[in-house]
Amino acid sequence: MNSNEKLAIHELLYKSAYGYDSRTIEMLANCYAEEAVMTMCIADGELIGPFEGHKEIMKMMTGAMESQTDKRLHNISNVFFEKEGDEAATVLSSLTLTAVENGSIQLLTTGIYRDEVVKVGGSWKILKRHLDLDLPF
Amino acid sequence: MNQGERLAIHEVLYRAAHGYDSHNVDMLTECFTKDAVMTIRVSGGDLIGPYDGQEAVLNFMKRAMKRQTDKRLHQISNIFFESEGEEEAVALSSLTLMAAENGVCQLLSTGIYRDEVVKVNGRWKVSKRHLDIELPV
């Protein structure tokens, strides 16, 4: 996989974070494939999900946004590839989640994303996302 | 050094961080050459190490892992190159170290890595690592 493709996948992860934090639903929605699946695990607890399909994932995310009154930042870092291909790849990245509210900033949690991404119509999209969070968000 | 090589070195630094945080000793081991050397300095104090050789470096890390009951995230950022070559390079990067335990996520320390990396059979590995860390962890 060449470096342009890798950087395009980095940007997909950053857009998905920014889309959530800025509540730009269209940007967030564009990051996921139609048949995307998402799961989560908090502090090595039980599996949450799977949320199956684009519609269900977006419903879960917009529901979470509505319950959050703070201003969040999903800081994505340490992006590296477990598998690389021309049309599909698996990428791991670290999450540092902070929130601002009432004049103070808090480190809410850290976590690791494992994303299976695929190329759809020339753009990379998330097909399968698993998030291991160290604390509830 | 082309963009692909630079990204490959970024990924080695991220893999070393993830290998440690996930206690994935195989992934961590793959990041260091057989003759790797590591030193640390905490808060500008005395030099800790050198840990000479991959086994000594890994043993030092495994002992540290065992002492730590929290869930750590070594967030690596601000990567830049002090020297660049086809087969060797020197990379500096920033560390933000966080830990989650008992429902709280904390910022533990910051630091700077200086890594000498070499290409071994087509893969970049760390041959000399020095960490200047601001606080004991």
Explain how this protein is built.
The complex is a heterodimer of chains A (137) and B (137). Chain A is an alpha+beta fold. Chain A has one domain (3-133): Nuclear Transport Factor 2, Chain: A. Chain A has three helices and six strands. In chain A, a hairpin with a 4-residue loop joins strand 1 (32-42) and strand 2 (47-52). The model of chain A has no long low-confidence stretch (mean pLDDT 97). Chain B has 137 residues and is α+β, with helices and mostly antiparallel strands. Chain B has three helices and six strands, in the order H-H-E-E-H-E-E-E-E. Chain B has helices at 3-21, 25-30, 54-67, and strands at residues 32-42, 47-52, 71-84, 88-101, 104-120, 123-133. A six-stranded mixed β-sheet of chain B has the order 2-1-6-5-4-3. The longest helix of chain B is centred in the first third of the chain and has 19 residues, at 3-21. At the A-B interface, helix 1, strand 3, strand 4 and strand 5 of A face helix 1, strand 3, strand 4 and strand 5 of B.
SSE map:
The complex is a heterodimer of chains A (137) and B (137).
Chain A: H1 3-21, H2 25-30, E1 32-42, E2 47-52, H3 54-67, E3 71-83, E4 88-101, E5 104-120, E6 123-133
Parallel strand pairs in A: 1-6
Antiparallel strand pairs in A: 1-2, 3-4, 4-5, 5-6
Chain B: H1 3-21, H2 25-30, E1 32-42, E2 47-52, H3 54-67, E3 71-84, E4 88-101, E5 104-120, E6 123-133
Parallel strand pairs in B: 1-6
Antiparallel strand pairs in B: 1-2, 3-4, 4-5, 5-6
